[in-house]
## 1
Amino acid sequence: MHFEYHVEGGNFSQAGFTSSQVKKTLKQLNVDGDVIRRTVIALYEAEVNIVAHAYKGKIAVDIDPEKISILLDDEGPGIPDIQKAMEVGYSTATPQVREMGFGAGMGLSNMKNNSDRLDIDSVVGKGTRVMIINYFNPTR
Amino acid sequence: MAATNNLVNLEKIAQLLDGQIITDAGNPDRIIEGAFASDLMSDVLTLPTKHLLLLTGLVNIQAIRTAEMSDIDCIVFVRNKKVTVEMTNLANETGIAIIHSPFSMYKASGILYQAGIKPVY
């Protein structure tokens, strides 16, 4: 199964729409509840990051019998130092993002904690590409 | 003494907090065992526990989205902060109960703790 969604930078009222759709789909597929929760938390963090930092983004979701793979591709400022961005407490979020209850510098590390595999590539001035993979068999 | 043996449902929580359930989605008989109080949604998203009650003063659509992703059953908005129609609709769609309470986060937390609702940490 393949789904694609578009995310608009700065549109906080829509942030989380894709994560919500993916949650519904995984529920319909009877995926384990803990796997669903980890997946949508990682995805939601990433989706909020696009809204908070990028101009626009695309989310491609692929589901096969073994796993869910999510590719988030944004056009935005990029991340100059990914290692630094992974540190808890480091944030470049605007006051508007903080007013929404985010921007505490916890997002990337929480994405890592909720993914079986997380890859982040970024080009400053162009954008960021995030790949999240979670396997459906929790014992893996 | 804390009444740790009594199961506390949403209806009882609304009563204890002098509040009301404003959504149709949550079953008033739903039992709540644990709670977390925060205005920082980033922190809520790191919690290891499901089916919690969230006490917050942060009134925006992302509070509902955060609850949806975290499998939180109920949100208590403290200090009489009113939610928007958009927020109520999303909560109803996603099966999350919303309670309005006039109490402060501190007071509401204390009352629920005393009623036997467990903390996450």
## 2
Amino acid sequence: MHSVEIKNLDLAFGATKVLQDLNLTIARGEFLVLLGSSGCGKSTLLNCIAGLLEVSEGQIFINGDNVTWAEPSERGIGMVFQSYALYPQMTVEGNLSFGLRNSGMAKSEIASRVARAAEILQIEPLLKRKPAALSGGQRQRVAIGRALVRDVDVFLFDEPLSNLDAKLRADLRVEIKRLHQQLENTMIYVTHDQIEAMTLADRIAIMKGGQIMQLGTPDEIYSQPRNLYVADFIGSPSMNFIPGTMSGGTASIHGISIPMGSTVRDGAVTVGIRPEHIATGDLAPIAPVQAEATVELVEPMGADTLILTSIGGTRAHVRMDGLAKVVPGDVIPIGLDPARVSLFDPKTEIRL
Amino acid sequence: MADVAFSGPHGPKPRRILNPRNIMLYGTLIVVTMYYLVPLYVMVVTSLKGMPEIRMGNIFSPPLEVTFEPWVKAWSEACTGLNCDGLSRGFWNSVTITIPSVLVSIAIASINGYALANWRFKGANVFFTILIFGAFIPYQVMIYPIVIMLREMGLYTKLSGLVIVHSIFGMPILTLLFRNYFTSLPEELFKAARVDGAGFWGIYFRIMLPMSLPIFVVAIILQVTGIWNDFLFGVIYTKPDLYPMTVQLNNIVNSVQGVKEYNVNMAATLLTGLVPLFIYFVSGKLFVRGVAAGAVKG
């Protein structure tokens, strides 16, 4: 049985259509990430699932029940917000137990659930404090705890780590992943951070303009982006797009021939190559296709070095080993692997 | 560190106290302060003088002989129309008018504001527009229709009628005040409370109210001063027995019989003004308390 199922969902604010005919099924225990730039409708979709926004058309099922008209508290969901949204006047314990007290649960049961959540999240020493006396990471942990005590099947995260600094974000990311492995419930996680998406997700849904552009495992999204938008969105720096032509199964860009070995139609194509899939140094000569590139700009980043090159007149990023010594003006040998090259139709922007 | 000898400018830049900017700033402040304080000073010293001393005409000079008799007379002996028991009667009338009016108007307006800000019900915008429009209609237009309405309800010349009138007239501005405050609170708190299963009243009493102390203080200051200082509604919708303090003050000061007792008039005026002043000093500090601290990112 599906954990969450969304059928033909529409949402419009007046004349503005935010979500259009959206279909999505999420398996039990799956970690699904909704990824997209701001305004793509990902948070709106999450709010619809939570019941905080009324849908214009369509249905939402959670655990097989039609919850389209149900109150947020009746849907069996817990939600974690970007700004934590802790009740400032209550202690951590009060925050954790608020929902349970509202449902009229017995005091002993509340106490044991709060204790269990506090243990899982390691916030036991903080239970008597007010949110104002907590650090950002601690507050977010309490916010997660508030969803945890409800013992729900579906967790909703609305950009939970966006307010934290880089290091804390990485730490809590690991903790959320561990929590998911431990609890094994369904999690739907909204973010605009592709690193979070790639590291956490079982599947990623990339959204744009209220529609899902591609739904797949992180590996699929990364290696086989369905269209130019997805290819451009995932990866940092993003994929290089070079105009080329296709004839007889071979793509050629500025005199470089890449035998694709597939039956792609002849004509103009956009060739997409990720910066990290362009071989340099010792690996360049052993790659199936060889070429040369002129270095224009060098950005050392420690572990690796990013160089902006010109391949036959088109600018392209290349990721090199951090120890490589290059200076602008150098002409370096590069190598390409047809298996890691993507082809897109320049007009429809869809993968060929 | 202290051993380093700097040459040239170092540390804070020295500033002269008497620079043009300070002279302008403090000069303006002093003039404005005097503008308010001199009349107050005249009132206080006059209320402490006996009539013979007032007749000498030095209104700025401090009292040669301090007497509290005018204050006693203003409070319990001065004649206001038919009654000669001073302002004390008006004081208690004003208290019994102000307290329920303030409580009722703030209770209703805060719920209105909360509903308008967080529960966007159908017709909310129309309702809000009408309410705000009400704030711009001059009171005088509505005086007579209200007289008829109160008469039909049997509340004309009763304190409860005046309480209703004050509560209604406080509604537009207070609702606007509360709506704007609740809108400024993080919306995610409201969402979190809904996910936690709290309903309309649960969210209002347990989430919103505890975070709204500052705006309640503002509303109390507005309403207490407004209702306490009201003269028009008090004189129209009540009868002499129930006149609020402001109406009685007017009757004392404007009485045309006998000698003008300036000292009693000044004392009566000061007595009438004490309540709003007290409210202001007591609650002023609460303005600056940041109650929402820790709710959201910080």
## 3
Amino acid sequence: MTDTPLKTTPLNAAHRALGARMVGFGGYDMPVQYEGVLAEHRWTREHAGLFDVSHMGQARIAGADAIAQFERFVPGDYAALKAGRQKYSLLLNAEGGIMDDLMAGKPDHDGLYVVVNAGNKDADFAYLEANLSGDAQLVVLSDRALLAIQGPEAAEVMAAHEPVLAEMAFMDCARLMLFGVDCFISRSGYTGEDGYEISVPNADAERIWNTLLEDARVKPIGLGARDSLRLEAGLPLHGHDIDATTSPVEGALTFALSKSRKEAGDFNGAARIATETADGPPRVRVGLIVKEGAPAREGAGIADLEGTVIGTVTSGGPSPTLGRNIAMGYVPPSHAALGTDLQVIVRGKPAAAEVVAMPFVAQRYHRKPKS
Amino acid sequence: MHFTKDHEWVRLDGDVATVGITKHAADQLGDVVFVETPEAGKTVAAKDSFAVVESVKAASDVYAPVSGEVIEGNVALATSPETVNADPEGEGWFAKLKVSDASQLDTLMDRAAYDAFLATL
């Protein structure tokens, strides 16, 4: 730990006024909970939860070469991405390790709008700044806050403010006037629920936050529930479930590898991805149900039935929705098949576990009907 | 009742000490989802980790405030860990110990001293 003072988001005073318990996360002073993690988790699954995710990094990549340059470092086909759509992707280093995971989309006709993780944003932006060439400029949007509204009632809440938002499908994005100001909005999130992420000017963040909280269907949700919600949704947390040593194949994120880009092989780490796709990776991220005893958390060993340690849990905890302990971690592909019986080692004691499909809790995205 | 700086409480009845975590500790943990209490017959020394309490976010050790032999762990907490939040200094007790040296309690804080300690945090 360093003595660097924590940064604050434009909603810091609002969190304190709501009685939030604050913690340091990604270099920011952030709310971990308001009324309690379990209550907030359940509220989001049943109603609508409002999250301050202003600690995340927002940027534009603009210029005639923006997409071609960006694609050197990510495996997604952004050239083919339609306007008004966004795509999950991975910022890869030269070895094919995941420097960060991100969302990038085309909300307007001005290049890409990108959202990256708080703890990585300085490194991500420095890397892009140093490596983008030609007519491609990184413009960091430090003048913007980011709100997420998530849950089965999120769409109705937002439609009450702007009816056109109901027409957006999962992974649609737009730039439009909301709450009287210039916003970027996408129908996406990090909970497995339907919902939106809304980028707003810093100066308007507290007003918009309070306006949304006036709706009885909406409650503020802290980072504690954000973590348990994303775990249930099977979504990896960078720095824990994936990191700069993990490839997209190991991370079970091959859905983020566009076919056209894999064939072209023209991005960081393409050779490693091709090799691991052909021969299998040395390890792969799997979901686990822990069938007895305590939750298995980050760092717990994963063993085969003979007790030989073959991997490590990268995140885990109780699933409030399932009432069971769930985890994700890495094992060799030989032990990654669904239904494989394994053990997790918690405080020196083995407990039965089984490889299961992720998400642990069904995602409820508002997907566009297949045309 | 006596208290430690690690937020355990201990209540002595004859030579039997009932031990738990304080309301402050339970509030700080938030929703308790799992408790591991020690088995009868186990010998513990003061300041040994002898139980585990887990919130949604994390696992925390619980330390024995005094030395002794475990008479009983509160097995009800295995199925109702939320009792630790609801009644931390009553039904949410963790274990009963047969104390080996009752004078160890003299090194702990009384309620007024513990409240004063909390005010410094």
